[in-house]
Protein 1
Amino acid sequence: MRISRSHLWAALFATLLPVVSAGAFAQAVTFATPREALKQGMSAYQGGYYEIAIPALEFAAAKQEFMAEYYLARIYSDNSGAHTDHAKAYKLFYRLANEYADADPDDDPRAPYVGKSLTALAGYVRRGIKEIGLKPDPAQAVIYLQNASTTFADEDAQFELAKLKLSGEGIDEDEATARHWLADLSERGHAGAQAFLADLLWRGKYMKPDKPAALALIAIAVENAPVYDRLWIEDIYQNIYCGSGEGIRKQATGIVAAWGNRFGRKPEAREAAGIGLLAAEPQRSCQNGEIVSPIKSGASEPAVATPVVRTPPVGTPAQGFTYGNTAPTLRDVGTEARDPDNR
């Protein structure tokens, strides 16, 4: 039987972790080249063994290995991990965004990560970091997001801009444009946008409620979600699923059958950032003890037609960032007449 490299790493880490701390590992292991350190660090990272990944990535980052710096920043910015250090993450993202600002999106493989660094940087600038005296600056955060979304086509930046359009934080408030952007991203398979839009549809916030569409969309988002976004997306799914009766669930099943392949993403696309699939989360349940189950399209279930588009186009999105001509099937769901005070 052939043993994969990932399984070999897992066996090695299982042996090392009980007796070797990150600092001890850094002293015990030497690397022939920065590239070899990067390879070993990435293998550990993808396996979720950050204690071993950090020393290897630090060695490579000290020699200016771009991807080592990027993934170190990812580790330090992870609030769910044991190595969170937002000051370090900010400095790394800032350096990458500025040092490689001229990366050509057409032929430089580093360009997508520069865009993601700009998006992460925007998040820090928007919130501020007390430890290093960084004050919140929503307007500057928007500039970073616009650069990431236009120059580097970063979908996470586009998602953040859409949310800011709803609140008017650092950017002109425009509900119609925000809905358009969220729906367009959802059609292209962005799990975060799908989950956020599903929550709005469920609650009837900024739009008319559509509970079957909300449940269908969040079900698709769960399937699309990258590891680092799964927790909050599954939280929304649990809330919507537990609040839905059998009638809504049956309708949602038909909608998933119509939308699943069109608005889904293959696992390799979801994990393009290099984060490996981690262990499954514990099974969730509703307050009444009912198990939270996935919504699947069944051959025996009657198909439900895709909601009809009724609203005229909202026009070209502001701030110089436009999307393609994706056929609208989600962007106008929930935009029919609603209570103007239901925001």
Note: Residues 1-27, 268-280, 297-328 have pLDDT under 50 and may be disordered.
Protein 2
Amino acid sequence: MAVRIVFATGNKGKMREIKEILSDASVPILSMKEAGVETDVVEDGSSFMENSFIKARAVAARCKELGNTEDIVLADDSGLVVDALNGEPGIYSARYLGEDTPYSIKNAKIIERMEGVPDKERSARFVCAIACVMPDGRELSAEATYEGAIGYEEKGQNGFGYDPIFYLPDRGVYSAELDPDEKNRISHRGKALDKMRELLLKELGR
């Protein structure tokens, strides 16, 4: 059976970034849906890394049940940490204001909650923790951050999620205004995936 990388997500925007960054792994990269894997995972960890391992282990177990014994399973947990909001939304970023709430509403709410907060206190970061379960059960991990600030409005058509309110003071643009290739180089997911990519290439002997 051929080696595949199965990423434990159904997020199309995230999968697009993942496939771009891991393109030189030279193995198929599939979402859970593309791999035919269905499993309900309760993310009840207390950190991004704990949640990513909960997902990776659950999906890896399901892949084995389906007979896909050579699958490498990756999962990430990522989110926005806003200092002035005591670290919110943090590990609850995807579920903030409800799991199916559009990000336009989530973004508007964060901007509203930050009203009156001066520039120097608007610091925020994206965090991405990636867990990997190898076919033999060994585990790998990588984590990275993407530093910036909460802006005063939504701007940009690139990216997804909280990107339109995430301002990069050193570049003078919002994350959603960046060219996708540039964002992949500097973002939390891009940097964490790059670390994981190096680990995987060693494992695959590439």
Note: The chain has one domain: 5-204.
Protein 3
Amino acid sequence: MRITSAEFLQSSPGLESCPPDDVPEFAFIGRSNVGKSSLLNLLTGKQGLARVSQTPGCTQLINFFKINGTFRMVDLPGYGYAKVPKGHRVAFQDIIAGYIADRPNLRRVFVLVDSRHEPQKIDLEFLEWLGEVDRPFSVVFTKIDKLKPSHVKKNTEAFLEALAAVHAGTPDIFLTSSKTRDGKREILGSIGALLDAAA
């Protein structure tokens, strides 16, 4: 699939203010500073479409992007945003849970995981919850340019082994880098296939 147009549509503080559920949506989420905005910019081919920040917790709303006039990519608030005031974290978790569990046109959740680290409890707990609410997901390993291929392989295999302990089945996985553009074609191909299957 090729993206020919991408534009910011709106930001929403919760499910009740989201745009109409009349087109398919694909959500992207991960811990803060995992490279989510950079990946969205890579996929859409529009630098600056999603805000890139070095400050954890910058995305505090649900951000919708209209793609090719036919579907949306959705930038969800990160989980594990250590520098966000504690009182706000509960609200953000409610935003995430409400959207993912109850949005009828959500087709897939792409969960971003930093390939440089060993399996993190917060990532595994979030993926386990996705299984509990029966939402299909894919795992996107980011920043693979920061490691040797052998280390990427070791870390991704360790993560999938840990995931198998809390979730039945093996999700689709993607190895990505916003710097080298690795993974762009594969993720867009996956979205295209999901759109075709629903047509």
Note: Confidence is low (pLDDT under 50) at residues 53-58.
